[in-house]
Specification:
This protein is mostly beta strands. Helices cover about 0% and strands about 55% of the residues. Strand 28 and strand 29 form a beta hairpin.
Amino acid sequence: MLVATPTTGAGPLSVSFDARGSSDAEDGKSLAFAWDLDADGAFDDATGTQASFVYTSGGQHEAVVRVTDSGGLARTATATIVVNNTPPVPTITAPLSTLTWAVNDRIDFSGGASDGEDGTIPDARLSWTLVLDHCPVNPNDCHTHDVQTISGQHMGFFSAPDHEYPSWIEIVLTATDSGGLTGTTSVRLDPKTVTLSFATVPTGLDVSVGGVSSTTPFSRTVIQGSRNTITAPLQPTLGGTTYNWQSWSDGGTRSHDVFPNASGTYTATYVASQSPADVRVTQAAQLTGSQVRITAVITNGGPGSAGVVSLTDTLNSKISFVSASSAVHVQMLPAPSGAALAWRTFLSLA
């Protein structure tokens, strides 16, 4: 490891070198240091972990330190020193930092750079980088995405990208002078945002926004025009009751994308599931002389209500209908899930 201080400046330039960060896994600190500071190929300019040198001629100079362990294995590290050359100074003239953007907005940029030795830096040595900074709630999760690089021009445009909020665009301009030194400047552009509110009927059910579920009611801040996938669970349970999804207030499917340009509320409507009924029919026949009496019994084992129940019975072709009892006997019968209704209808057949 080699550190040089300073690395640029006007001559004569005195530079200090520090290789104390060097180490070896086997030897620890038992290392030998040799320096080539005048770039003549000979490591005879200094020994030890630190060194210094005065550069009088302009241009780029390479300083090298060679580190050797007790077994004779050696590695080198190099530092670049530039004398009588200063880095270029880039300037972004557009956009201003006050500009805000929505997804797919056109953003125009322009700028340039000047250099103490070269004067105006030509377009061929300018490079623009569009960086998207994303910083979730946990600061440790902050990260960047290099979206686009445009080189060789002092102006142009790009379309604002789509991403989760909170995030912002950083436009970076880098200029390189004839001596290879670079200068960088940037401008931060914050997005336009909208607030999405989410509700369910009944309230207290979970819905997912962008893959993250929350319990309603709740709100999310998103970038205007961004893609957001909202999903309502098919059959959630609340307070022991199971509900079936029916609709979203915007008419979308159970899981669909929204691209909001304004704040709004999205409501998922549910209906309580009806517990299934267990309807059963038993019949018994009693023959008396030339007549047969058929008794039909309808029972519901639950647990849900059977509602209105009707029974149609087709007679054998060898018998004919005579009469039916006008009385319908209703009594409570036990069932595995609790009490259920039973209907007994007496039919006279011949």
